Every structure is written in structure tokens, then in C-alpha cells.
Please model this.
Amino acid sequence: MRNSIRIKCLIAIVVCLASTSLAACKSGTSSNLKDTPSVQANSNKPELRALQLWQKEDYNSNPVAKYLESATGYKVKYEMLPQDKPQDKLNILIASGEPFDAITTTGTTDFKSLYADYARKGALLDLGPLLDTYGQNIKVGVDPEALEAAKIDGKLYAIPTKSLSSSGESLFIRQDWLDKVGLKAPRTLDELVAVLQAFKDKDPGGNGDKNIPFTMKSEAVFVPNIVGAFGMPNFWNLVNDKLTPRIMDPHYKDYVTFMSDLFNRGLLDKEFVANKDVTAKEKFTSGRAGMIVVHWADIPAMIDVLVKNVPTAKTAYIPAVVGKDGMLGLSESRGFDRLTFIPKASKHPEDMMKWMNSKLDPTIFRTMTIGEENKEYTVKDNAYTPILPEFNENRGQANNFLTGTDDKIYPVYWQARVRKDVRVFEAWKFINVTEPASTRTPDPLGFAPFLPEFSKKFLMLNTLVAEYTTKLVFGAEAISDLEAFRQKFKDAGGEVSYQEVNAWYTTVKK
Amino acid sequence: MILKNRSGTFATMILRNVLAARFWLIAYVVLILIPASIFIYAYSQRYSRILEEEVTRSMLQTLKQAEINLDHQLDSLRDTSNSLFLNPKLQQYLNNSTTYSEQIDALKELRYLIDNGQTNSNVFRVRLYVDEKKLFSHEKVNFFPIETLQKRPWYQNVVDAGGQLVWTGVYLENFIDPDKQQMYIYSGIRLLKNPEDYTNLSGFLSIDVDAKSLENMFSSISLNKDQNVFMVAQDGTIIFHSDKSLLGNKFKSEAVLKAIEGNVEGVSPIIEDDNQQYVVYTTVNATGWKIVAEVPKKGISSRAATLNQFSSVATLTGVTVLFLILVFILVAFIVRGMNRRVQTVIKVIKREGMAGLDERSTASDGDFYLLEKSVDHLIHRVRDLMEETYQSKVLEREAQLRALQAQINPHFLYNTLDTINWIAIGHKAHDISQMIDGLARYFRLSLNKGKDVVTVTDELELAKVYLEIQQTRFPKSFEFVFELGGQDGMEEVNEVRASLESCFIPKLTLQPIVENALLHGIRKSKGKSGKITISAWIEGNELLLSVTDDGIGMEPDFAQTLLTEPRPVVRTDGSGSSYGLFNVNERIRLFSGEAHGLSIQSHPGEGTTITARFSCSICRRDRNFREDHHA
Model:
């Protein structure tokens, strides 16, 4: 009620200002009356100020900005956070109460923690009531799980834009080698071992003693796909209703044993510990390795080099292999791509919410993200293909304008972006579309809020575990000492993280 | 046509002016143009040399700047290499890792060290060549087996250096990084000895630098558009060259290598394949490499020459303009001076008239003095002429007055004489009447109505009247005879008479001769008596009149002088001048031509014969003219 009065006052002021300025311009007063309605129509939608992520080009001149202005009727003045140390700048802006109507940040851990901080300190507007009043499209479009994850102390202070969940890395194999040894793509761990053994014994690449059945970068000691067959596709997996890191996982021992076996039998690159990403890729693209761990986005560059070296080479991802008890899966990333919040200093919070809501109107959302059909994209059988270069020119930066997505339809639109290279698209499609959903295990920590202890220790613990595991695979450490290492892990912060994560997890589970 | 003519005349005028100004032109050429040209030429030669020196020196400075930059860069790279080399952990991890566990730990530590080394922005990559048995020897990003290095030409150098840093030239290296598969780099490599066993080597450390840093450095060296900047090692091997195919080869120009040999830095002009060029070079302290720039002399010289040409032309133009200004100033002064003099002359003339000019002292010399003198002379001439004219005017007036008097008097005279005649007749004094009549006739004939020519008959008549009057004056003292046409036959006499009637001669030609014959011939003879014979006859085309007396005669030489020398004949009675023979002779010659005139035959005591010759045709023509005139 108070808000509506304030708006009326505002409108009155704006109208007065507009008419006086018009009066100043025009001599006759009669024309003022005629002009008033249109002025009032505009004054219903004030100019909004939005603080965005850094990007190379100016937001205001972007075709998306122009489209949004015409489609929503809101003129928005976009400003950018700096490229370097955007956190510092944001801190200053929030502390000084700069009247932005919306602030969009990335969804990374540091910004997540800033967001939580601001919310708790009362710098942000509780979006719940506004969402109920003006945010119908948002409520329908945005994944409720993401909305829930964005809540701080039970209140929503930001509209989250979900990361597109996808599985990235898997095992990429030389299909021509498979054909040569007369085997099909492995579907179980045993089949995988058989294939690698065949690669080693039959040397389909003709590499002699340089033959490597399976290579990977040293960081990939928890081999995607294989580790899924041991029930540990993600860093933390659910074990007995508790989120458990891999080192504490009961299947850890089995996995290490399996990998150690591969290493000892010469099926795994004996130098993998020294492999940087490029070293492993070079081994594969030079034709010496039969299988590699790779992200679908890297595939075109690799195939280009491989075909240059081995013109007959053919490649493919293998399906997610099944281990004991039918365990399988690839890690599926999840989380916030970005967060959009309204600071209390905003002068037009209702209008901002209205604006964000209208951006999720199905037509506006589609046009905003991928443009117009037959101009920026074509659609056939619900598959969106970009028209280049128009798509890149007009909608190349569209993702930076997102303030929440229609999570049911956006992954489909997003295909238009992946289709820029057909090999990328095919690889992405195999893992994320062709393979059944059961093969993708979402990261349970994806929508976790900022967990200070966990965040602090995550990287360090991860490295510790990876090094230990590598040594185990090499036989440099004995598996019998596992409990001692687990204790070391707990002491190094593993236990605190475990408690913290599971404390949060129990709240989500309900 | 007119225009052409005009322009033609204009051109000739200019030509004439130029010719007239040749003194100035010659002065200009000799005094200014030639010395200026010589001076400018000498100056430009010297200037070119200085400029070339300056340019090459500044080139050397540029090179030295690049050298300093490179040195600095190499220093920082050496520091990186040293800090890695001196790190005890490096040796430790390279040597003491035999088990997998140790190797994994070693790899981690070495990576840490390498990443540290790679934080130097000049370092493209730190590479370690290690024992192939090492787990990580085939990592191919930072770790390589020693065998890879052994294939390189500089391997032996590195081994020989025994732990000292050895810099390679720029070479092409293959990397496995997808975006940098082939790169031009140069490396500082050193041997890593096993600190516990120096005979055993534990590996090689290579600090790689992107050759782009050299490229940037060299491309920023801008000396000349035809420059060729490169870097060679002490043995002449090309370390860096924009033409990558030359890398690692020996530089092929012996002359260049010779020029740079032995010196740290310098500028040497060399001639190779008829191309003159400068070799500017300096030495990189850290490596002994020489940064060499080949700069064609032509480039520098042409720059200098262009400058010189410009300055020469500018100077010559300047000199010419100055000279012209000088000439103008001089001319202006001269014209002013001339003006002043002319003004003075005019003023003097105006103020004092011509006479004033005489008083002007002409101390000055030269053209203008001459001019002034000419003007003076001219003025004097004009003054003389004016005086002459004035005199003649005066005389003319007098003559006119006399003529008027002469015109008035005869009538009065005749009337008076006539009256006297009648009075004499009335008093029966016939002799008076006769004399008066004779006097009247004398006057009438001698005046001849103011005309200058008379018929021969009239002239004879005048002589007759004169003689009759004188006979009356001096009675019985002489007799006279007229002989016309000789003595034979009447027929001829008649013919001669007719001729005499029609022939005109100048007035008073015969009378003075007759007067002379009477007064000087007869009257001065002893008896004071004699005979005067006047003859007239025609010879061919000539009319001859002669007066012969039998008086005292005279010396023929004296007779001749009478004809050739004018002498005022003053009558003894002092009544005024009379016509002398000279005068008569001149008048006849003027009238009848040079071939005619008087001739005198005389001897003392034998009388005198004076013969006057007239051209008959002239007489007649004259008569015709007279008749026409009268008609």
C-alpha cells in the first residue's frame, strides 16, 4: 500500500517535471494535454539500472539490450563490474548504497559467499513477496531446486541462473583400433579391461614399445566413467544418506585396486603421473594411445591433429561402463551460473522484478537467448541450429543478459550454441542426450550454499587425495596404510568439511 | 600579328636590356654565382660526410639501445637460470629419485620450481632434459630425455661449457601445445652436474625465450627503410634474422664478418658486389652476439643528397635574390643620383639659363660627366645657333628695310631725274638732258625692277649707259666699241643679237668688269685714255662676253688672285663697296656651273681682256622659266 502511494507520488512528480520541461519547449499549453498520456505511459516504466558482469563490449549497444527494451518497454542502463577484482568493486558499491535495481554476479563460490554475506547483513531485498506478486514467469521457469538453493536462512534474496548441467569428460577411444582388434565399445569394466588388453597385445596402432592402451593427464586419477563404475562419479557421493568424499568411500579401495591393476598390467600409461593435459593429448593425437580422458569441448582440436597424423583414425566416446552391482555414471555438473539480486538501495524494485519476469516470457526468452527463427537460428525437430555469423553477432553475448532461465526449455535453446561445431555437438549429445539419464549423476554439492570450511579446504584436500591415489596406483604407497591416510585426511580438515556439508545436506533433504 | 610583333619587340627589348646589363650579369656570375657554387659544393661534401657520420652514429646508438634491452633481458633470464641451477632441490630431485614414490614427489617439486622459473615474463618455457629412465622424461612440456638435446648442434658446446650458461641462436622448436606447435625460440642451456659426483651429469636446464621478443626488439630498430638487422654469434653463425631459413647458418657475407670481427662496436663502410653499405654493429655483453645492421650507403647518401640539393638550391636562390635586391638598391641609388644631377642641371638651366652651365664645375668623372659634357656641348651649340639666327634675323631686317628704301627711291629718283631732264630741255641744256637721261637709264637697268637676272642685251645696254655717262664725265679720254658675233657678216650678227635678246645672265656681271676696265685699266694708264672693246659671241653652247681695254694691264699672277681671293673693293671715292671680280666670277659659276666663269688675259702695259663664259642653254632655259613665270 505504501509502495503504491509512493509510486503514485513518483508518477506525479515525473509528469510534473515532464510537463514543465515540455512547457519550456513549447509555447502553447494546449499541446501539453495532448502529450501527457504518452509521457505517463513512459513514466509507468522508469529507467532501470543494472550492474552486470564484465564483458568486452558495452552492454547498452548490444542487440539483446535493444531487443529487451522494445520487448519489455523498460529502458535499462547497464553498467559493468570490472574485469579485475570485481568483488572489491561490488563491496564498495553495496556499502555505498549505490541505487542499482539489479546486480548480477557469477555463481562461483566466492560470489556465493558474498551474496550470503550481503543477505545476512541486510543489504539485499527479500524477493519472496515481489516474486509472489510479479514473478509468475520466474516461479514457473526457474528450477525450484535452484531457487531453494539460492535461499539464505530460508529467504530468497536472488534469482539464480542455473548452470546448464552436463557431463563433460569421459573416455574417448580409437574406434579404428576397436575395429582392428575386433571388439565393440566396452560396456562393463571387464570389457574395458579386455579392450585395453587387446590394444596392448595386438598393438593396432603399430607403435611397438611406445604403444599406450590408455593415457590420461595426471589430474584424472579418478578417471571419469571408470570411477562411476565404482559408485564415485563425483567428488562427494551419497553413502548411506551422507555425502561422503571419495577417500572415505567404501568403494575407494576397489577402485584403487582396479587402477593399480591396469597400471601393473601396462594397460595404463606408465608415465601418466607426469602427463600434463597436453602431454596426454599429444600421446593420443600422435596415434600412440588408444584411449584418453577428454572433455567434449576439446574434441575438434584433437581430431584435427589426430587425422593429420593418422588419416585413417576414427574416434568415439565409450558409453558409461557398468561396474559391480550395476554402478555406473558420469559426473554431471550443477550449480549457479549466476545470481541476480536486488539491493535495498534500489529505487524501482517492483519494476525490476517485473522486468526480470517479462524476460522469462516464453517468446521474449527465446528471442532474447537465441534470436529470431530463420534470422539467428533455424529449428528442425526441436533441434536448434545457429545461423552463422548472425547468431554470434546478435546473440553471442545473450548469456550475459540472463537473470534466471526457463530451465525446462533453455537446455534446448542452448544446443544452438553447442552446434557451432558438429563434432562438439555430436560428442556432447552422446554423453548428455543419447546416453540414458541414469548414466549422469548430478553433483550433489552443486546447489550447496556457501560452506566456508568446505570451500576453504576443498582444493587442498582434493590434491592430497589425488596424490595419494596416484601413489597407490603406482604402488608407491601400500593400500594397507589407507586407514592411516584417512586419519590424516580427516585431521587436515576432511572431518570438518564432512560435518559442515552433511549439516547442510540434512536441511535440503527434507 | 601585332601582338607577335609586340612580343617580338618586347623580347628584343629584354634581350637588349640583358645585353646592356651584361656587366652586371658577368659581375654576378663571377663574384657571386661561381664562389657560391664552389662554396656550396664544398660545404655539401663536408655536410654529407658529417651527416653520414651522424646518421650512422645515431644508428649505432639505436643498436646499442637494443643491445642494452637485450642484455637486460638476457640478464634476467640468466638470473632465472641461476636461481634454478643453484636451487639444491633441483639437483636432489634429479638425482636421488629412484622409486616411483620419490619420482612422483620429485616431479611435484620440480614442477613447482619450473613454474617459479616460468613466472619470469621473458621465459617462454623452462625445460629440463633428464635421464630417459625417469618417469617424467617424456612429459614433453617441461621434461625431455637427454637424447633429444644430443641431436642439437649446440650439445657439445653446452657440455664443454661445463655448467656455464650457453645461449643458442634462434631455432624452430616443436611443442605439443595445440596452439603453439611450432615456435621460434632461443634458449639458454646449461649442464647440470651431479653435485656428489661431478663426472656424472644429471641433466640439462634450458631456459627458452620466445623469439618474438627478439623480433619485436629488432623490428623496433628503425634505421633506414633498406636496413637489414640481424644478430650473429662470434663465429658468424646467424643467431637471429628476419629470414628464418638463414638461422643457424654461417653468415655468407665475408666482408661483413670481417668488418665486425674483433671490435665491440662500430660503424664500418664496406663495399660488396658494387654495393656500398655501412655495417653498424654492437656486441651483446652477455653472449658475445653481435647485433649487426646493414644499411645501404645509398639510403643515407640519398637522404643527405636530397637535403644538400635542397639547401644548395635554397642557398643559390637566396644569393640570387639577395643579389637582385642589391642590384635594385644600387639601381635605385644610381637613378636617384642621376635624378638629382639632372634636377640640378634643369634647376640651373631654369634659374640661370644656359650661361649658368658654364659656371658648373665638373669635377666628377665617368659616364655621367660625359653625358653632362655632351649636354653642355649641345647646349652651347644650341646657344651659338640661336645667336647666329638672331644675328641673321637682325641683318634680314636691315636688308628688308634697305629693300623697302630701295623700292621707294627709284620712283622718286626717276621722277626727279625726269623733271631735271625737262628743265634741262627747257633751258636748252642738251648735255644735261643727255646725262640725266643716261643716269636715269643707268638706274633703271641696274635696278632692273628688283630682279636678279637680266637679258644680255640689257646688261650690254647697262654697260653702254655706264660708259656714256663716264664719257661725259671724262670727255675724250676713251672710246668704246661693242662687237657682237665677231666681225664677219651681218647675218651672224643678227643671229647673235637674237641670242643676246633671249639669253639671261645674272644682273651686274658685265658692268663691274667694264667699270674695272675703265677705272683700273684706262684711268690708271699714263695717257689716261684708251679704248674699251666689249664683245659678245657664241661658241657652241657657250655665250662669251669679253671686255678688253688697252690700259696699264697687270701681272697674270695678280690677275689670277683677283678671281680666287675675295677682296672688298673700296671705291676711291669711298661711296661704298662695289662688286669685285671674285664676286662676279662666283656668281657666274653659281649661275652657269663650275665650268664657266671669268678668265683674265693681261700683261702689264698691254691691256687686259676679261672674258665671261655663260652656258647658253642655261641662259635660254632661264629665259623660258622667266616667260613661264611672267605668264
Remarks:
- Residues 22-86 of chain B form the longest helix (65 residues).
- The radius of gyration of chain B is 67 Å.
- The interface with chain A takes residues 99-101, 103-104, 107-108, 135-141, 143, 176-178 of chain B (CB under 8 Å).
